[in-house]
Amino acid sequence: MSAGAAPSVSVRRRISLGLLLAPPMAWLVIAYLGSLAVLLVSAFWSTDSFTGAVVHTFTFDNIMRVATDDLFRTATVRTASVALAVTVICAVLAVPLAFYMAKVASLRVRLALVVAVTTPLWASYLVKAYAWRMLLSPEGPLAWATDYTPGYGLTATIVTLTYLWLPYMVLPVFAAFSRVPDSLLDASADLGASDWSTLRMVVAPLVFPGIAAGSIFTFSLSLGDYIAVTIVGGKTQLLGNIIYGQLITANNQPLAAALSIIPLLAIVAYLLAMRRTGALENI
Amino acid sequence: MSSKSRVGLVLATCAALVLACSTGCSGQPGGGEPPPKLEPLSNVGDGEGQLNLIAWAGYAEDGSNDSTADWVTPFEKETGCQVNVKIGNTSDEMVQLMRSGQYDGVSASGDATLRLIYAGDVAPVNTDLVPNYASISSFLKDKPWNSVDGKMYGIPHGWGANLLMYNIDVVRDAPNSWSAVFDDAGKYKGRVTAYDSPIYIADAALYLSKSKPDLGIKDPYSLTPEQLDAAAELLKKQRENIGEYWSDYTKEVQAFESGTSVIGTTWQVIANTIGADNRVQVNTVLPKEGSTGWSDTWMISSKAANPNCMYKWMNWISSPEVNAEVAEFFGEAPANAEACEHTTEPDFCDIYHATDEDFAAKIHYWTTPQKNCVDGSGDNCTAYNEWVDKWQQIKG
Q1: How far apart are CA A143 and CA B319, in angstroms?
Q2: What is the tens place of the pLDDT at every residue in A91-102?
Q3: Distance from CA of B98 to the nearest CA of A (A)
Q4: Does the beta carbon of B372 lie under 8 angstroms from any beta carbon of chain A?
Q5: Which residues have a Cβ under 8 Å from the Cβ of A77 and sit 6 or more positions away?
Q6: Where do the domains of chain A lie, and which CATH numbers do they carry?
Q7: What is the pTM of this model?
Q8: Which of A245, A283, B124, B160 gives the lowest tally of CB atoms within 10 Å of its CB?
Q9: Tens of pLDDT along A205-215?
C-alpha cells in the first residue's frame, strides 16, 4: 500500500475490492446459507400423504420423529461409526506415508508419491466405486487370488470410502510434516532424545493439526456419502440413503430436511471439537 | 457496526424469499378431493420442434444402446420433434421429475399415475386426437390406474409381470413358487435379491395371500396395518438371505452375471439382457401364486411446453408397428392389439399373453396404496407413505 495515495484512488480501491468480493459473498450468503435456511424451514412443514405435495403448516412432528424413531437412531450410529472408522484408517495409513514422503524420500520419489496419491482424484467417483464392486465380487480378482472376499456390506463400504478419501488425509498431513523443520529433529536428537521421544514430543504436536484437518474431510465426506454404499454396501443402508429415500421415494421433503439436521449437527460438533486442536488454521 | 447490519439485511431478504415461496408455491389437494379440473387439448397443430420425455429404460430407444432398436429417429424425421429422453429409474423418481414441470410427458406405471393425476401434474388426454387409441386392447382402457371418472389420462403403452428369475447352474430345482425367495430363501442365503422399492411389499403380501389365507389379504395393495406388519415381518426374514437389493436394471444384470445374486424378482428385459451377454444362464417363471406387474401409460404434463409433439409421440408409440418394436425390445405385452401382427417373432404375443384378457386379469398391477383401500374394501388401509416407512424399517 502506498501511503501517499490520493483519496480518489483509495475510494476506487474500495469499490474494486467490493466488486471483487461481491460474487463470493453473494454465493456464500444467498446460495449457500440461503439453501440451508430453506432446508431448515421446510423441516417444520408436512406433506399430503397421497400426492406428496408439501403442506405449509407449522409442525414439530418431523423433528420429534427424527429424535425418537429407533430406525433413525440405529442408522445414525451406523453412519457415524463408518465415518469414524474411515477417518481412523485413513489417519493410520496416511501418517507413515506422509512422514516418508516429507522427511525420508528423495525429491524424485517424493514427486512420484505425490502424483501417486493424487492420481485417483482424476478418476470419477463412480468409476472408483464400481472398480471396488468388481474387485470384491464373489468371482472377482480378490476372491480368485486369495479365495477370500468380504463380500458386499459394511466392511466393503468402509474399505471403499477409505480408498476414496485417503488423498484428502495424506495431503494435509504431508503438508504438516513438510513444515516441521529438520533442525528441530536434529536438535532433539542432539539433546539425547530417543527417536520415539522425538516423535512423541516434537513431531506429534506439530503434525496433529494436519491430521485433524484431514480428518474433517474424511469424516464429513463419509458421513454424507450414500452412493458408495448402494454400490458395494449390499443390503446395508446409511443415513444418507434414508434421507434420499424420504426425499425421492416417499416424496417427503419435510422429513428429509429434518433428518438432514442430524449430519449437519454432527459436522458442526466435529468442527467445534477440531477448532480446539488448531486444525482449522491448517486446512 | 454497519457491515453487520448489512449482513442482517441480506439474511432478512433471504428469509423473505423463503416466506414468499412458502405462500406462493402452496400445496395441492388431498386424496379425498377430485383431481384438479384440466382441459385436454382440442386439436393437434404443428410440432414445436422439441419433446422432453421421462421414460423407463428401453421405452424410447434411438439406436445408441442397441443399433437395431431405434424408433425415436424415424419419429424425429417424420414430425421434426427433437426428442430428449430422461431415464427414470423408479416410479418415485418419475413423479419427482414430473413435478418439476420441465417435461412434456412420461411413461408412468400404475404406482405413479394416480399421484400424478391428483397432484395436477398430468392433464387428461383427448383420445380422439390419437388415432391409434382405437386399436388399443379394450381391457386396458378406462382402468382405475389410468382414468378418473371416465376421463382417460393417457395412452396405454404395454404391460407385463414381475417374474421370478434364477441362475440355472445354481438353482437346479426349477422353482415355480415365490416361496423360493421367502420361506425357502435360506437355501441361497446371501445370494437372493429383491426389488429395492416400497412397492415390493406387495410381492410379499401377494405371497402371504396364498400361503397364509387367514390373514385375509385380498388385494396386495390394500393392506390393513396388521396385514402390512405381517408382510414387513416376512420381508425382514427375507432380508437375512438377501445379498443385495436392486433398483436399476443394470445393477441386477451385473449382480447375476457376477454371481452376487442367483435368484430373485425381475423384469423380462433384464433376463433378455443377461441372455444376450451369454455369461450366465438364467430362466424366468411366472410363479403359481400369480404376480405383481406393471401397466404403463404415456401421460402428458399439464405444463407441457410442447403438447403437439407429445400428442404426436403418443400416437407414434401406440401405432401397431412401433408398439410391436418397443414391446419386443423391452419384453412386455404391447397395448395395441394389432401390434401382434408386426412382431418379428411370430408367436411373441402368445408368449406374453398380449391379447389374453384372463391372463392380464391375474396380474396385480402396481398402484399407489391409499388410506381408502384401492380395491374399495374400506377406508382402513395403509397409505404409500406408511409403506415407505415400513420399507426403511425392513432394510434396518
Answers
A1: 50
A2: 999 999 999 999
A3: 12
A4: no
A5: none
A6: 7-55 (no CATH), 62-282 (1.10.3720.10)
A7: 0.80
A8: A283
A9: 889 989 999 99
